[in-house]
Fold each of these.
Amino acid sequence: MRRHSFGITAMLLATALCAPLAHSDSHSQSQMGAVATMANIVIGLQHFPSDADKAALAAIAEGDASSSVKAVARAIANISHKVSADDQATLATIAADESEPAELRELASIVNGVNHVPSAEAVAALQGLASH
């Protein structure tokens, strides 16, 4: 399962990082690619992210994404059974901010509720986010 998750994560990360920058909404497209990558990582989460997942999340956190996308990436990377108290507050703020994209708000809310592994309901929602 982890090997399959790594392959999907690597493929999505490569797609997100190599997205063409030719048109004006390319920034939002790359952010949606980052959300899809993070959703796939959370789908496969087992108590904490793997080393490969952490590398993909670090690339997002160090890339050109918005500060909110970077904060969600860091929160996922820091998961150890559940989100830290500091990250919970940040994720709650992002989830409640109507100026953020709906997909990012939903991801922040789901990540905030992870306890060891995502619930079946969360996985279903994450699969929707991963397909964008």
Note: Helices lie at 2-17, 26-43, 51-62, 67-77, 85-96, 102-112, 120-130.
Amino acid sequence: MKEQVKFVGIDRFNRPVFKSIDKPKHFYGDAGHLFSYGATEAEVLVRVTANDLCYFGSSFDCEPYGTLADNLQIITTA
């Protein structure tokens, strides 16, 4: 079963951040695609897929560990 993640916002480094639904203290993000602060989920999901995400840590503004995450599924609010 895939770990489900949901977009939660753009951090202070302009990276899109996703929070795990299954593991509340797990945050993932993409350091390769940067966005303006306040970018919407729709804008982010046009460019970012689950394959782009790496583990960021246990809080919103964590530094990325650089470990690519596998077995993730992005859940949308639409």
Note: Residues 3-75 form one domain.
